Amino acid sequence: MHKVTKVTLGVGLVLLIGSIIVTSVGFDSFMENMDEDFVEGGTEKWTGKTPATFEGELNPTSMYPVFVQEYRSVDVELLGGDENSRFVPCEDDYSCGSFYEPGYTYVGDVYVSHSDIWKIQFSGDVTGDSNVMIREMNMDVPGILSLSFGCLGVCFSLGILVLGLIFVFTLKENRNDPSNGVVLVSENTPKSAATDTKDWWK
Predict the structure, then answer these.
(1) What Cα–Cα distance (Å) separates residue 194 from each residue in 39, 42, 182, 183?
(2) Residue 107 zone, left/alpha/beta (φ > 0; ψ -120 to 50; rest)
(3) Which of these, 43, 120, 42, 116, lies nearest to 75 by C-alpha position?
(4) Residue 150 near residue 23 (C-beta atoms within 8 A)
(5) Which among 26, 154, 166, 173 could disulfide-bond with 147, CB atoms 3.0 to 4.6 Å apart, if both were Cys?
(6) pTM of the model
(7) What is the signed CA dihedral for 49, 51, 56, 58, rounded to 10 degrees?
(8) Do 78 and 84 form a contact (C-beta atoms < 8 A)?
(9) Tens-place pLDDT, residues 41-77
(10) Listed residue (103, 96, 109, 107) closest to 69, CA to CA
(11) Alpha helices (H) in 65-140, listed in sequence order
(12) Cα dihedral value 37, 40, 42, 48, nearest 10
């Protein structure tokens, strides 16, 4: 096997093993953090009574579950939002019932694409004076980064291994084998006396 092929396959294999380990660690960390947050429901960020408007800093590395008093309903809107920064009702992603908070009903999540001072408006409550609450669930950023870089590493290492397999079939190792050499003999080269034994007595 050619030396370049050996090096390529070796690097690809080592990188693949390392990337798998990093991916596994990142995935375990991310899932552990998510499980804890889902069980605890995050931390309380704000409570109020309808109609009301929350104003405060929101970050893209967090999600913000919104709750309303049991047996009440409310309209929620992220003011100044867009497709990437908005309130997502739980009916849209079939997540209703994902969180349980005594005395409240989970109605959806607020997501933002960048850190800023945002306003969340609560309205549409016919009864009025209903309790509303915003909680905050921090995402495991190191775990997400580890998972992302690990996946990229796996893809890159697979590419190197494929390149190594191509080298296996295209690169040939140079061999200095004297048995395969060709000996050129000149026509004017005299024969050795030691090898000419014909009629040696004449």
Answers:
(1) 98, 99, 23, 20
(2) alpha
(3) 120
(4) yes
(5) 26
(6) 0.59
(7) 100
(8) no
(9) 578 999 999 999 999 999 998 889 999 999 999 999 9
(10) 103
(11) 90-93
(12) 160
C-alpha span between 105 and 69 (Å, rounded): 6
- Rounded to an integer, what distance in angstroms lies between the CA atom of residue 48 and that of residue 56? 13
Q: Find, among 156, 167, 173, 151, the residue nearest to 8 by Cα.
A: 167
CA–CA gap between residue 60 and residue 19 (Å, rounded): 26
CB atoms within 10 A of CB 42: 19
Report the residue count for the chain.
202
Contact indicator for 63, 144 with CB cutoff of 8 Å: no
Per the model's pLDDT, the better-predicted residue between 93 and 41 turns out to be 93
Sole residue written with tokens 């140079």: 174
Tokens at 161, concatenated: 């291994």
CB-based contacts of 27: which residues, under 8 Å, 6+ apart? 143, 147, 150
| Contact assessment for residue 171 and residue 2, using Cβ atoms and an 8 Å cutoff | yes
Residues 6+ apart with CB under 8 A from 90: 96, 97, 98, 106, 107, 108, 109
CA-to-CA separations, 70 to 10, 27, 129, 138, in angstroms, rounded: 61, 35, 12, 25
